[in-house]
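PROTEIN DATA CARD
Card holder: DUF2974 domain-containing protein
Chain length: 383
Origin: Slackia faecicanis
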Amino acid sequence: MRNIMDYLATEFATFDEVPFCAVDALVLSEFCMVRMECILPAMKEESTIGGRAAARLKALLPGKRGVCFKDALMAEHFSDMFTGLVPEKIKELMFALAASPRFRDMRMEECASVFDEGACTQFAALSFSYRNEFAFVGFRGTDCSFTGWREDFDMAYMDLVPAQESAVRYLDAAAPRLPKRLFVGGHSKGGNLAMYAAAKCDPKVRARIARVFSFDAPGFRRGMFDAAQSAALAHLLDRYVPRESLIGMLMEYPAPYSVVQSSESGAWQHDPFSWGIDGFDFERCSGLASSAQFAHDVIERWLARYDERQAREIVDALFEAMKASGAQDFSEFLKFGPKTLGLLRDAAKNSDEETRAVLTAAIGDLAEEAAHRAWRGQADLAK
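Structure generated from the sequence above:
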């Protein structure tokens, strides 16, 4: 099965010859896991009228902006430049982009990054311009930090998390300095931020957006968007999930999805490097696996048991237990796949009594919902 690395190694058509597509958006979304804040200066928000006018003028000038992919090949930064669950693949991606005739002349600019443990915030965004023809605004997915994953879990019970607010501010601030035609996207949490920013940004900015790309990203709590925002996002959105998607089926969406083949199984299908590529498109399948629908139903019913206060207590207990386990980051739990729940139960034993009680009860509730869904599935088969 061909993947995005094969795509970069073999598809040499320029964007003038083959227009920007969803596969290109996935490639650039993954590059957002490169910490370009090591190389690029932080973007500035132009809040004054004069500043906004200067930004628009800059976007129209023919001079070169930002840096190319080859400019990121700085070995002195490699030790802490790559993040996410597959940092070595991200490093290989950077070299492939620098060599690709399709991508190597793109320029990166408007780098923004916020990491605040106290506020449970992990946010980063980067824009990629092709001449003055179009720009892709990419939002970084979750890194391996407990802070980044805590913010993800907060999305399940909070109407707004700091990264979503930052995404809107970023898009509104960057747009005046970018080519008129915009694409917006991201993978996982980055896809959620892309959708939120596109729905909530200045209407003048939204009018410039050609497509919004969401790659196996979680959805939103009910009532997050008004009718006009939902309709606008649904019109722009291209949503992709792997056959055994878990993350991409969480919460609600304003638009349907396309299902992509993956060379991995289970939760590891979340890795975009496993997604099948066919020419300038994804290798599609007819629908989700039954396991993905099972997990979606279980988690939806499980979350519905709790109000906001109870959900916050569970998330607090979860992360207290993980820290008490001695794990350095969230990836140490994810790598065990189906055994993760057992590890969390063991971690809870090292926590204080209150944390242990909350987490043990929540795990019990989850197991109960899974058993109920399995029984219901067997009953349906017997009909």
